[in-house]
Design brief:
- By secondary structure, the chain is of the alpha/beta class.
- The protein has two domains: 44 residues; 135 residues, 3-Layer(aba) Sandwich (Rossmann fold), CATH 3.40.50.620.
- The protein contains six helices and five strands; from the N terminus they run αβαβααβαβαβ.
- It has a five-stranded parallel sheet, sandwiched between helices.
- The radius of gyration is 26 Å and the shape is elongated.
Length: 197
């Protein structure tokens, strides 16, 4: 009669040990996941040191933060021009709907001018773009036609690594290495802080 009782006790201890092992493993996995989640934001940011360049390029999106960041860089004297990419949306859709919309590039131009960038120093890039890869192609073509060596690309914090990767792929595809002349400097646009006063 003692054997079944000993077996039950052994089985109970074994089950408790397994439960404890699963609990510890789950907590470790949760801590690791939390650590990765908290660090991924830092990994996404890839900023280069700023140096004098041919132009500052404002990528579409995050209006007006990117244009405001470009004005700061312009006033620091790091480039004589500010280039703005021209997204085809939502301008196309708004025009189709019969709703007036000047386009994001026009609003960015106005922000630049309002903050002291002369109109002659602003260039809206052609052709209209659909995505970031199109933006990189437009920048590379304009840089090449301007015989420029480098640009400062202003984008959002979380997009810097992706934009960096797209630029590197563009270099490889074109068989050119703009980087040898220091062609790209990626910076993030600072988020606006609401003024409570």
């Amino acid at each position: 009669m003692r054997w079944p009782m000993i077996r039950n006790q052994a089985r109970h201890l074994y089950d408790r040990g397994r439960a404890r092992t699963w609990l510890v493993a789950s907590l470790l996995f949760l801590c690791l996941g939390l650590l990765c989640f908290l660090r991924i934001g830092n990994w996404l940011v890839r900023e280069d040191p700023l140096r004098p360049s041919t132009a500052i390029v404002v990528l579409s999106g995050a209006m007006p933060e990117r244009a405001l960041e470009a004005t700061e860089i312009y006033h620091a004297g790091l480039a004589p021009e500010v280039w703005i990419t021209q997204p085809s949306e939502p301008k196309q859709t708004m025009t189709t709907l019969g709703i007036p919309f000047d386009g994001e590039e026009e609003y960015s131009r106005r922000v630049l001018m309002k903050h002291g960038v002369p109109e002659r120093a602003i260039r809206i890039l052609q052709p209209p773009i659909v995505n970031t890869a199109d933006e990189m192609n437009a920048i590379a073509a304009t840089l090449e036609s301007a015989h420029g060596l480098s640009v400062i690309v202003v984008t959002s914090k979380a997009h810097t690594r992706r934009v960096h990767g797209l630029w590197n792929r563009l270099e490889a595809k074109r068989g050119q290495n703009y980087r040898s002349g220091g062609a790209h400097r990626f910076v993030r646009a600072k988020p606006l802080v609401a003024n409570d006063s």
